[in-house]
Amino acid sequence: MLDQARSIALLLGRIAIGAIFFVHGWMKFTGGLEGTTAFFEQIGVPLAGVAAPAVAVLEVAGGIALILGAALPIFGVLLALTMLGAIVFVHGANGFAADKGGYEFVLALAAASLMIAFSGGGALAADNLWRRRRGDREAAVAG
Fold first, then answer.
1. Which own/partner pairs from 86-92 qualify as long-range (CB within 8 Å, at least 24 positions apart)?
2. Domains in the chain: boundaries
3. pLDDT (0 to 100) of residue 130
4. Is residue 38 classed exposed, middle or buried when 0-12, 13-18 and 19+ CB atoms within 10 A define those classes?
5. Cβ–Cβ under 8 Å, residues 73 and 118
6. 106 close to 113: Cβ distance less than 8 angstroms
7. CA dist., res. 85 & res. 83, Å (int)
8. How far separated are the first and last CA of the chain, in Å rounded?
């Protein structure tokens, strides 16, 4: 019973955090990467012309990966690092409070990304479903 509740809680958390990243990344594409690149240049992000599309792709792909529970350690860490970049370049100077443009929200996203990255994702994560199937096939071959 507790394992089922844990898996459902992890699934809901992955969906929520993944959806936030997906939408933010998608907005970078639909709003125009030129605008995102210009913003990155304005705030001093190095190689803004490369960083803007890279962040947009990471947020879209990473959001989908979190929702599916796929490659969680990789995408969770990369998304957390992206949020640390957002703190350094955008939100850190504004203090903690999100309502003042501070880093509260992006810090929560970074922490949630790391928790998901190393949680295993739960029984309903693609990573675990794949491992189980692979284990079943290996057991059948060995048996």
1. 89/40, 89/43, 89/44, 89/45, 90/43
2. 2-142
3. 82
4. middle
5. yes
6. no
7. 5
8. 31
How much is the pTM?
0.91
Q: What is the mean pLDDT of residues 51-62?
A: 98
CB atoms within 10 A of CB 23: 12
pLDDT for residue 1: 86
Residue range 85-113, pLDDT digits in tens: 999 999 999 999 999 999 999 999 999 99
Structure tokens belonging to residue 115: 């928790």
Secondary structure (DSSP) of the chain: -HHHHHHHHHHHHHHHHHHHHHHHHHHHHHT-HHHHHHHHHHHT-TTHHHHHHHHHHHHHHHHHHHHHT-SHHHHHHHHHHHHHHHIIIIIGGG-S-GGGT-SHHHHHHHHHHHHHHTT---TTSHHHHHHHHHHHHHHHHH-
